[in-house]
Amino acid sequence: MCTGLSKLLELVEYKLKEAISREPTLLVMVVGVPNVGKSALINNIHRIASSRFPVQGKMKRATVGPLPGVTQDIAGFKIAHQPSIYVLDTPGVLVPSIPDIETGLKLALAGSIKDSVVGEDRISQYLLAVLNTRGTPFHWKNSNNRRMEGIQYEAEEKVDYSLKNLRPSRRKLPTKSHVLYVEDLVTEVQCALYSTLSEFNGNMEDESDLEVLIEQQFEALQKALKIPNKGCEARLMVSKKFLTLFRTGKLGPFILDDVPEANPLS
């Protein structure tokens, strides 16, 4: 579990105890933009409550999924008894209008807007622009040097694996061969982006130069992801697989907003 979520759950636990000391019955509503983990948060609140307070029978769990729109209606869950704690899960909400294009692209990249609204190709272009301008492939090289230098692992069995299997599900756990397959695939993708960026001689702040680099990276990603040349269809497949790796955390944790640097203590 990431540090941010752990701290959030600690705060939730503290607030639950604080509120319960005053109220015999507690009603909690979780509200936020689509696809940010509201239902997953509710399930974790359920876990906290069930470990601290008595429960009656088997409790329902909120349905989660990788795409926006899984939660269609407001759903109520009783997660504890004595004291009674109820949680309301709500469909994702967005502001009526998105203030600028970049905000819309960030929401689309995070999965808060359906891909079909913006287009996987455009979302992938934005992701590549973010990675390039931040120099992320160079960070990959420094932090994962041994694998990016070409060390590969032999699978113990023939792997028939789809990136769709990276999505959260209740299926059986992946085998060691599957794990190594994904690790090698991620390394191939990282190497492809590192190589193209390290050979780039243009100006990163020039839109035309950046577009040329991104086109080169799409070609490199197609080879890394082993997608046969099928024109527009190949471009769409590259975009979908690349976005899946990003959204499932295989390319590492990211904050899309610019975080201001903390002022050093005087």
Can you offer a commentary on this structure?
By secondary structure, the chain is mainly alpha-helical. The protein folds into 2 domains: 17-89, no CATH class; 101-247, no CATH class. 49% of the residues lie in helices and 7% in strands. It has helices spanning 3-20, 38-52, 101-109, 115-118, 120-134, 136-143, 145-148, 176-198, 207-224, 232-247; strands at residues 25-30, 75-80, 84-89. It has a 3-stranded mixed beta sheet with strand order 1-3-2, with helices on one face. A hairpin with a 3-residue loop joins strand 2 and strand 3 (84-89). Helix 5 packs across helix 9.
Summarize the structure.
This protein has 266 residues and is mainly α.
Write down how many β-strands occur, each being a DSSP E stretch of 2 or more residues. Answer: 3
N- and C-termini, Cα separation: 34 Å
Strand content: 5-15%
The pLDDT mean sits at 76
Number of helices: 10
Give start-end ranges of low-pLDDT stretches.
64-72, 151-158
Q: Report Rg.
A: 22 Å
Main sheet attributes: strand count, strand direction, barrel closure: 3 strands, mixed
- The global form is elongated
What structural class should be given to the helix and strand makeup?
A: mainly alpha
Question: What topology does this entry show?
Answer:
Blueprint: H1 3-20, E1 25-30, H2 38-52, E2 75-80, E3 84-89, H3 101-109, H4 115-118, H5 120-134, H6 136-143, H7 145-148, H8 176-198, H9 207-224, H10 232-247
Helix pairs in contact: 1-2, 3-5, 5-9, 5-10, 6-8, 8-9
